[in-house]
Amino acid sequence: MARVSLKAKLKNEKASYDQKGYHAKVGFYQENTIDASASISENKGTNIFSNDYITNTAQRIFENRVINAKVSYNILPDLIVNARYSNAQDKQNVPAYGSHYDTENNEGDLNLKWKFSPNQNVLIGATYTDANYKTNTILKGDQSVDSTGYYLQHQFKNEQFDTQVGVRLEDNERFGDHTVGQAAIRYHFIPNASVYANIGSAFRAPTLNELYSQWGGNENLAPEESTSYEIGSDYDITPNISTNLSIYHTKIKNLITNNAGTNKNIAKANFTGGEAGIKWHQDDLFLSTQYAYVKTENEATELEIAYRPRQTLTVSTGLENATYGISASVIARAKSYADTANTTRVPGYATVDLNAYWNINPNVKVFTNIQNVGDVEYREVLNTYPSNDWYINTGRQASAGVTFRY
């Protein structure tokens, strides 16, 4: 998402940010036969970064669009084929510089799920991704990469145990073949309580934007590789009160971060943290609290990773039923560091979000969402050129919509 310069905000309120967009979705569902849908989301707008570096006439015009289409079809009662296609476009134009930055990603996924017993199923599939980046600020002005992933997953579930084991082979055009896997188990030692453990590995190739962007691009980036471990529990204290607790540790090789305006790899990084939550509900009312903590570390320097707040607290409350609902969430994030040397702080902040819906009748639903109701201004990213300045958030955002069913 585009950001607004704090210096620009202070000098001229008009040198800021404007965005408008829409979302539409259509679908068809027939129980035990087919479930299909297609959706489109688009946002357009203009932002101005800074009055001292990019002048007030150097507007950045942006347009984002996401198209999703998916279908699930029951070939047999126990055999389901799923297909999905996604297209995401992000276009940015700076007329005063005569420059443009356009990305487009196309992704398709096809898989087959076989429920070969009442307690077990196996999933096999493949994903193809084609990414493109066009700009007049890089060599040849056009870069692309494609990647194909093949995956296999097995699930088992009965009254006491849930298990999942999976493996994925990623064939990336630029970074070669990588195999990752995941294994998880959950044990229900009493009907209202369970414990679980997960272990998994992951691979993430640098995006074309991270490789070639005029602002921070680095063609020498290596892909991220990680291994994660997690244990946790879920416990329903009463029929109205539920709790969850988890701790995890993740080791990352070649973590991609931004340092002094350039994307770079951190050779070895660690993330250690946990989450705890409690939720109460009575009839239509609910109240929940979720706390998350994470300690990050660059192994070479023993310093924290930039822009990773240690603590996040979310408190939500509301009223929901089959006809209408309204809820509010307070989200508070602790301070973090803005640089790898851990010398500059990003202040913490808190925002409030509101959500509401009304089912006018069985066929029509209206809804609205407001993010950052209080229009709280907070700092997001430190800019060090030509002088220290902060990019701030885009302020309050609101959306409204209607859903038709027939």
UniProtKB/TrEMBL annotation:
Alphabetical list of InterPro entries matching this protein? Beta-barrel_TonB, Beta-barrel_TonB_sf, TonB-dep_rcpt-like
Q: How does it sit in the membrane?
A: Multi-pass membrane protein
Residues forming the TonB-dependent receptor-like beta-barrel domain are: 43-373
Where in or outside the cell is it found? Answer: Cell outer membrane
**Which biological process, per GO, is one annotated for this protein?**
siderophore transmembrane transport
The record's Pfam families line, in alphabetical order, gives: TonB_dep_Rec_b-barrel
Q: SUPFAM superfamilies of this UniProt entry?
A: Porins
Record keyword Membrane present: yes
Record keywords: Cell outer membrane, Membrane, Receptor, Signal, TonB box, Transmembrane, Transmembrane beta strand, Transport
Which Gene Ontology terms cover its molecular function? siderophore uptake transmembrane transporter activity
List the GO cellular component terms. cell outer membrane
Main location per the UniProt record = membrane
Instruction: Tell me the protein family, please.
Output: Belongs to the TonB-dependent receptor family. Hemoglobin/haptoglobin binding protein subfamily.
Name of the featured protein: TonB-dependent receptor
